[in-house]
Amino acid sequence: MDTESLDYLLRGGHYNVPDRIVRGIWPHPPMKMADLVSHIKSTLDRNRWFPYEWIPRKDGELIDDVTVIEKQAPDRFVVHSRCASVHDLRRIGRQAETVFESSEQAARHYLKWELNLPGDLDSWKVIE
Predict the structure, then answer these.
(1) pTM of the predicted protein model
(2) Residue 66 to residue 74: CA distance in whole angstroms
């Protein structure tokens, strides 16, 4: 799969089947977790954030369910996560920051908790 399409999927994007065929990415063999981790690592080598910049929220605002990685230093990566209350989408139900020493650890955390991988990524199989 080309880098642009993979990046779009790892950022939570979706391709319908006609678009997959046009892009030449369907059918596609299973993807390997190591390749996805490598893609996120290389993105964090060039950027501070993956998949996009963290936007702080406070109670009273519409709360998004989101997980992002922030590179604070070469050996410090923070995974920020937040979800709305199940009773009120304008209240923070859970918010956390988890610190990792490597981009690989942060990427694996993101893939597991944000995209539920290994498993299906927009119907592509992701294997260890």
Answers:
(1) 0.91
(2) 23
Domain ranges of the chain: 3-127
- Tokens for 34, please give them: 């190591």
Query: Per residue in 57-100, pLDDT tens?
Result: 999 999 999 999 999 999 999 999 999 999 999 999 999 999 99
Q: Report how far residue 27's alpha carbon sits from residue 76's, in angstroms, rounded to the nearest whole number.
A: 37
Q: Cα–Cα distance between 75 and 63 in angstroms, integer?
A: 30
Q: What DSSP state is assigned to residue 47?
A: -
DSSP letter for each residue of 90-112: TSEEEEEEEEESSHHHHHHHHHH
**14: Cβ–Cβ under 8 A, 6 or more apart, which residues?**
122
**Residue with the two structure tokens 């779009």:** 8
Q: 52: how many CB neighbours lie within 10 A of its CB?
A: 11
Reported as type and span, the H/E element at residue 18 is helix 17-23
Main-chain phi, psi angles of 23, to 5 degrees? -75, -10
Cβ burial, residue 104 (10 Å; 0-12/13-18/19+): middle
